[in-house]
Amino acid sequence: QRGIGRLIREGERSFSFEFFPPKDDAGEAQLWQAIRDLEPYHPTFVSVTYGAGGTTRDTTVEITGRIARETSMVPMAHLTCVGHTRAELEAILDAYEGAGVANVLALRGDPREGPRAAWVPTEGGLTYARELVELAAGRFSVGVAAHPGGHPAAESLQRDVEVLREKQAAGAEFAITDMVFRAEDYFSLVERATAVGVDIPILPGIMPILNLGQVKRMAELSGHPVPAEVVARLEQYDGDPAAVRAEGIAMAAELCDALLDGGAPGLHFYTLNRSKATREIFAALRITV
Ligand code: FAD
User: Fold this and answer.
1) pLDDT value, residue 117
2) Coiled-coil ranges per the record (predicted)?
């Protein structure tokens, strides 16, 4: 199976879709519907997240394995250090390999209280994503997280891109960013990263805002508020959910255009296990199946 690092470097433009392990049968049906709906777009890869502390351990293995076996797509399994010893992490990597998965996104993960809370490593486990990169590199094509506004607990923006450089030195072949809402935030991350010697491709993460309630949740997830001008554009349609949604899709499509025009090597979509919004953005970008 193909390594994503090479696919991004050698391909023209990377498109990828992220899913999460569902909690019940209805969620599972929705996930597979989304996967099947998006397969005709021939994504470079699709990825499946890993729940804190191993809550989705078996499902992440199962879904990525099934994607490898039953679809034409290249899967990537996420893995975090939360709640695991080094030996457990090695066993999970073995399971990914056994399931036919050749790509891993190596992450630290977050404390239960969120990305700003104090991070306490598990005894016998790993402290930083960099160590998980070291554990997986060689066996897998390894990707890592990058943070456009800086990781919320980082000492400084400068230190944060030095961390990215350390993950690259440990063997990471590509990076994917947290949600991007303004192209300039992505490009300033790339500029800071390039200045300290990062030269792996950095894919911007895209999540359209489809309703105003999502704004708060996104801020909690990423540790940064959604930019005020983005919220303002949506709030002008407050009270008209269809218009808010349409504006959210239009803004995401504008953002994707600006990112690709400015030289981003691809786009990574946070799908939330639904295909409709992504298909609408693709239609706006005039990308067809
Ligand atoms: P790290 O690179 O380890 O960095 C964490 C913090 O430590 C940063 O503040 C960094 O500056 C600091 N740091 C790192 N090294 C050092 C050092 N040597 N000295 C001092 N400080 C240091 N979470 C999940 O639970 N499951 C998922 O599936 C998942 N998928 C994700 C996918 C993407 C694309 C992204 C962007 C994030 C994802 N996350 C996921 C969230 C991620 O776990 C959090 O963002 C987490 O807070 C940071 O992870 P990291 O891998 O960037 O950590």
Assistant:
1) 86
2) none
The predicted-structure confidence for 107-117, as pLDDT tens digits, reads as follows 999 988 888 88
Two tokens, residue 47: 């990825």
DSSP per position, 229-280: HHHHHHHTTTT-HHHHHHHHHHHHHHHHHHHHHTT-SEEEEE-TT--HHHHH
Q: Does 52 sit in the ligand 1 pocket, CB within 6 Å? A: yes
Position in ligand 1 atom list of the atom nearest CA 164:
2
- pTM equals 0.97
Report which of 18, 1, 2, 31 is spatially closest to residue 203, judged by C-alpha positions.
Answer: 18
Take atom 30 of ligand 1 and give the residue whose Cα is closest.
Answer: 49
* pLDDT mean over 53-67: 87
Is 0.95 exceeded by the ipTM? yes
In short, whether 205's Cβ falls inside 6 Å of ligand 1 is yes
